[in-house]
Task: structure prediction
Amino acid sequence: MEKLFSDGLIETDLSGLKDTKLFNKDLAPTKIVQRNWGTYNIASLWIGMSVCITTYMLASGLIAGGMNWWQALMTITIGNVIVLIPMILNAHAGTKYGIPFPVLARAAFGTLGSNVPALLRAVVACGWFGIQTWIGGQALNSLMSVLIPQWAVWNLGSAAAFLIFWAMNVYFIVNGMESIRWLEALGAPFLLVVGIALLIWAYVQGGGWGPILSQPSKFQTVGEFWKFFIPALTGMVGYWATLSLNIPDFSRFAKSQKAQMLGQAIGLPPTMALYSFIGVAVTSATVVIFGEAIWDPVVLLSKFQNPIIVVISLLALMVATLTTNIAANVVSPANDFANLYPSKINFVRGGLMTAVLGIVIMPWKLLSDYSAYIFGWLVGYSGFLGPIAGILICDYFLIKKKKLIVLDLYRRNGEYEFTKGFNLKAIYALAAGVFVALIGLMVPSLRFLYDYAWFVGFAVSFVVYLLIMKKK
Result:
């Protein structure tokens, strides 16, 4: 039974659902009373997720790669404006029907086929969980080295700190989101304070904005710049390509479409630009002060002489990283894994699976340098997520015309059964997009396709899916 509310929001009563294999309380559509997030709440969510170490490293990585400050800031801002479009579009179904990402994916891929995009998204989230955990672990390692000098010479200190910080994340996963709510309120402000403090330090030690922001670009020709800019822009889009898919996990709590659209527009691009500027300016200052671009803030803080400043800063980084990790990198994969076997896998079990895979992915290699982080990790996985975004948007807006039968999303043999639970046309379109986007890795002459991985994958899968779904 469905009820229509203002702004086109629909509430579906699933109390009479008999087939519970595709249903659990974590995947259930939200009720209207639960959709109470306004523009401020949505914007705050994005501010909290954007103000994190990986955002800082995103900007500083571009500086380390050869861009000057305005080129780096321009690249990041353009990338975030671009990714805002699929973000708002994919959020629409979450707000209208109150359904999370893996359930929305059932409309295009089938009740069982939705596990394909859900698992691809989940694996990437596990990688991000590992990356954030590694960063937090290195902050803990630096902190312990300051407090206990013997720790600094222990060969296993870095690994031990990583595992301790990993265990801290697991504690909050097991005890649920409520156990970390009070920390979430402190995380982003902590990181903002540290960022601003680093900015002031950079200004003073670097001799003002002149020397810092006058660092020239290392690219001698326009051709050299574009060769770096294109994959860098793809990396910037890829940075939020994950959330652009599972944004329904959050937008299903929005009180209106206006709230989710305005909230995201206010919270995402401006915050990314502001915090990225801090990363850009501070990294430019390290070139002036230390003679090299230090893109990792944990490494930079460890160079400070005052132990009190180092301890407070590293503690702030740890708290902020912990809260960001749980909010941005556990909620989505926990839901995605739950979609595999809803009656057996709940949020906690899905979260624990995320934590284990976060180690298996070996995040220390992904953060070995800025090139591995931006051009390997961000660009690489965007070749998988761009095609999924293309299919979801095409299906919801052009094929389904924004009309879904919510009850059938939670049961077999309904509207979204297709072929034994799989929409093979969506699988074919996904495969086509991924193939074209990533073929540049194997064929040097087609490298430009990989440099545009997210864009190419999105376009190919969108068009292929539209054509084969329209064909009778």
